[in-house]
Design goal:
about 220 residues, alpha+beta, Aminopeptidase, 7 helices, Acyl_CoA_acyltransferase, GNAT family N-acetyltransferase
């Protein structure tokens, strides 16, 4: 556990944090161009997002690293990707059909695009960073990231993420990420900014954004 940002306590999340943190994820991502594209109806979006982020939270606990703050107002879900990760495509399609119903095709498309353009170089993937909307712009998200960034620098590993709006893109640029080639979602979808925080180098710089060749997925 680490103290950052004027005594903000960052700790690993557990199943006991599920209720508050699923709510933080669903609320933090409820607005924005990606949310509007995935589910145009705000009422439907609230229902589907709760199911989606419930699945996301428990998946993070099982296969990744989930961090929160002492007051449960923020959450970060990281996945160590030290080698290319296989995807259980058929089971994931079934899960998304159950979670998103009529909106499943766009969720499937989004996840397939993210997977196809994911770097192969060893790294940690920041899948989600969410701060309670009533507590945003107070440095909480930056403090949550700084805690993990220190660990990555000690390990000599880079970080990768996908930013879905310009506000988040600017935040990550300030925190030492560089922007790589974008993903443009079809059917009038928004632009996704792929971002990379390189590993420290002996010269004092950081490794550059890796080359990525789109991968094909098949059932």
């Amino acid at each position: 556990m680490t103290i950052t940002n004027n005594d903000l306590l960052v700790r690993l999340a557990t199943e006991a944090d599920a209720g508050p943190l699923i709510g933080v994820l669903a609320e933090a991502f409820h607005q924005g161009p990606l949310a509007d594209w995935l589910i145009p109806d705000p009422a439907d979006r609230r229902t589907v997002y709760y199911r989606y982020f419930k699945d996301t939270f428990y998946h993070g606990l099982a296969y990744g690293q989930v961090y929160t703050t002492s007051d449960q107002t923020a959450v970060a879900i990281w996945y160590p990707r030290l080698e290319p990760a296989p995807t259980d495509t058929r089971n994931r399609l079934e899960a998304l059909e159950h979670i998103a119903g009529a909106y499943a095709p766009k969720f499937v498309l989004l996840e397939e695009m993210f997977d196809a353009f994911h770097p192969d170089d060893p790294h940690h993937h920041l899948a989600y960073l969410a701060v309670d909307p009533t507590r945003q712009n107070r440095g909480i998200g930056a403090a949550l990231l700084a805690d993990h960034h220190r660990r990555l620098d000690q390990l000599g590993l880079p970080a990768y993420l996908e930013a879905s709006n310009m506000r988040n893109r600017r935040l990550y640029l300030r925190l030492g990420y560089t922007a790589g080639p974008t993903i443009v979602l079809p059917t009038d979808g928004p632009i996704i900014w792929r971002m990379w925080r390189g590993a420290p180098t002996t010269s004092g710089g950081r490794t550059s954004f890796p080359r990525t060749r789109p991968r094909r997925r098949s059932l």
